[in-house]
Specification:
The chain is α/β, with parallel strands linked by helices and 346 residues long. The chain contains twelve helices and eleven strands. Transfers the gamma-phosphate of ATP to the 4'-position of a tetraacyldisaccharide 1-phosphate intermediate (termed DS-1-P) to form tetraacyldisaccharide 1,4'-bis-phosphate (lipid IVA).
Length: 346
């Protein structure tokens, strides 16, 4: 197992860590207070200094440090814009190279602009002919103005929750007052958990449109994208996502409770080395080796393929399933495009 400190922190945020974790939570209270104050001051300073973008901007963001499904939701929005005859671009800070590679593999003909200066990135996209910019992870980026602010909340994470460093939240629940639309997502959590989070959002922000979205394995492929049969027990999961436990839950949900599942988590956005891959192959032995699409884009690199030594890899492809609020989401996109004099999403 390779998640180390990051894995312990995730468990700690969820109440784990035993006596050490309890003491650490108490000791981190002042740090959380300092972080909360810093966020409030930053929002006050930047909130009134946004720069009008060159083209309409749809921001897909969240309140936590990851794991809500931003990247596949960006993909869904890009697909809807393309269906409406609109030329979109994806804009990102560029922190996760794997996510940029995913966007480029999903939409080879869509510009992907990565730059910590999101204003400059949107301007480049506009100069290249894009008509709408879809911002991946933009809710906390206050400098760039946007026309539609979408915030995702994961049903797997308690809402509301502690702020960094005591918890995974970058902002408190009051930040949702800035959102134009909230989507509660779920991967391994039951539908009831998503409904609980949605009810809390409604209680705090009655005027914010709300939707719920589940991610389900929509199929399996190999590293080249060819369809394959679902993996059979035993299963060995090697993944570098923010909340790897959700991947285990998804696989177990498809394969059945009797499936023997081993989880080998790496830190989020981890850059695999040939040594990592050889270790995983040796540890998996005869088990079916499972990764996410986010992992697969890295494993396709020639050096890492060589380390696999011909080993079959099952890539889990997630499919978004709207459970409520689909009309609210498409309606918000339609209004944005109509106001900009563009098409209308399907």
């Amino acid at each position: 197992m390779a998640d180390g400190l990051s894995g312990w922190v995730r468990r700690w945020w969820r109440g784990g860590g035993g006596v050490v974790g309890a003491v650490a939570r108490w000791a981190a209270l002042p740090l959380e207070g300092v972080f909360r104050l810093a966020v409030a001051l930053r929002n006050r300073r930047l909130g009134a200094r946004s720069v009008a973008p060159a083209i309409p901007v749809v921001s897909i963001g969240n309140l936590t440090v990851g794991g809500t499904g931003k990247t596949p939701v960006v993909r869904w929005v890009v697909d809807r814009l393309r269906e409406a005859g609109v030329r979109p671009a994806v804009v990102s800070r560029g922190y996760g190279r794997d996510e940029l590679a995913l966007h480029r593999s999903w939409h080879p003909d869509v510009a992907v602009e990565a730059d910590p200066d999101r204003v400059a990135a949107v301007n480049r996209a506009a100069e290249g002919g894009a008509q709408v910019a879809v911002l991946d992870d933009g809710f906390q980026h206050r400098r760039l103005g946007r026309h539609l602010d979408v915030v995702l909340l994961a049903a797997e994470t308690a809402f509301p929750g502690a702020l960094l460093p005591r918890g995974p939240y970058r902002e408190g629940p009051g930040a949702l007052a800035r959102a134009d639309l909230v989507i509660v997502t779920r991967k391994s959590a039951p539908r009831e958990a998503a409904e609980t989070v949605a009810a809390e959002v409604r209680r705090r922000h009655r005027g914010v449109p709300l939707a719920t979205l589940a991610f389900r394995p929509g199929g399996w492929c190999d590293l080249d994208g060819a369809g394959v049969e679902p993996p059979r027990s035993p299963v060995y999961i090697a993944t570098s996502v923010a909340w790897p436990e959700t991947v285990r839950g998804l696989v177990a949900g498809v394969a059945g409770p009797a499936t023997e599942v081993t989880l080998d988590p790496f830190p989020d956005h981890h850059e695999f080395t040939p040594g990592d891959v050889r270790r995983v192959v040796a540890a998996a032995r005869e088990a079916a080796l499972v990764v996410t699409e986010k992992d697969a884009v890295k494993l396709r690199e020639p050096e890492l393929r060589g380390a696999l030594d011909g080993r079959m890899v099952h890539v889990m492809v997630l499919e978004p399933v709207w459970e409520s609020g689909h009309d609210e989401v498409t309606g918000a996109l339609s209004r944005l495009l109509r106001d900009a004099g563009l098409g209308s999403p399907a």
